[in-house]
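Key result, reporting period 2: structure in, sequence out.
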């Protein structure tokens, strides 16, 4: 696995985190407890920070990046991902903020300064434009996304179950690696 510093800043994570050998994690990237990073993920915390909350999983081929700080925007656009977030295969998350208990469907794109509140499902292939806010408790689909309908109780429960399933899976991978 390629875990390396940028300008002397190293990724930060503990032994409860699984990072696949093919992933690339660079710079100011903080992974909380029980995070899993799957094959071919690229996370570049080079010109700003990436923070991933507990029990979140970033699936195969996803790109995580940020926007640099500038005189026009002194804070830039960091990437902040909350707890219990499932990011599907081949997603692009760029300088956005995701709350807790979110499912980002396969190949979805979430752009700079978008804010996704808690308890949201973003449909596969959807595009969340820059600066858009997705309100809590809804399914969003399309390119650009549109609010489709409220989430059902079963869908809200699935958001937590998905994260829990990935914690179990990453623990199996860690056990096998340590055997």
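The corresponding designed sequence is given below.
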């Amino acid at each position: 696995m390629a875990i390396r510093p940028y300008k002397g800043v190293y990724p930060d994570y503990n032994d409860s985190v699984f990072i696949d050998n093919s992933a690339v994690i660079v710079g100011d990237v903080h992974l909380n407890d029980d995070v899993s990073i799957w094959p071919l993920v690229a996370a570049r915390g080079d010109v700003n920070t990436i923070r991933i909350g507990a029990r979140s999983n970033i699936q195969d081929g996803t790109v995580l990046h940020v926007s640099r700080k500038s005189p026009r925007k002194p804070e830039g656009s960091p990437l902040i991902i909350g707890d219990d977030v499932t990011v599907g295969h081949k997603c692009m998350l760029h300088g956005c903020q995701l709350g807790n208990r979110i499912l980002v469907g396969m190949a979805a794109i979430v752009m700079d300064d978008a804010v996704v509140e808690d308890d949201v499902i973003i449909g596969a292939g959807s595009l969340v434009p820059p600066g858009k806010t997705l309100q809590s408790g809804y399914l969003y689909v399309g390119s650009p996304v549109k609010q489709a309908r409220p989430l059902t109780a079963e869908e809200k429960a699935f958001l937590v179950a998905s994260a829990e399933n990935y914690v179990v899976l990453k623990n199996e991978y860690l056990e096998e690696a340590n055997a």
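Helices lie at 153-178. The chain has one domain: 2-178. This case is discussed further under Risks and Mitigation.
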